[in-house]
Amino acid sequence: MSYAGDLGCTQSWALLKSDAQAQLVDVRTSAEWNFVGLPDTAELGREPLLIEWQRYPDMAVNAEFVPMLVAELERRGSGKNAPLLFICRSGARSQSAAIASTRAGYSKAYNIIGGFEGGRDEAGHRGKTEGWKFEGLPWAQR
Prior knowledge:
The protein is of the alpha/beta class. It has helices spanning 9-18, 30-35, 65-76, 93-103, and strands at 5-7, 23-26, 38-39, 49-50, 54-55, 60-61, 84-87, 109-112, 139-140.
């Protein structure tokens, strides 16, 4: 595997609560943050990092993703061994971000499977079968 592994949403929340060095990195687009909502980490005393993996609206891969991540982690005092938990809508972009972060030297880059909204159900709707919101984890609308 080219990154530390996959964690479920509840598992990820437990890690964020138990390890003050763990960082949640939301790699969705600014439109998703604004219209769908964000994981609410207020009780942890730290905010998620918001860095688009793909830039809205053209959805081109953000070539500055790793430099932006490194700069923000350094600003927060997080080292290369801090757990990084990447989340997107359903787990694809976050896996790519975990791989890129591992290549940049971060040894504990995890993909949150199910993402914020999860995959689609039989009716084509998200948030009904898996994901951060489905599992009842803290989240807020902007």
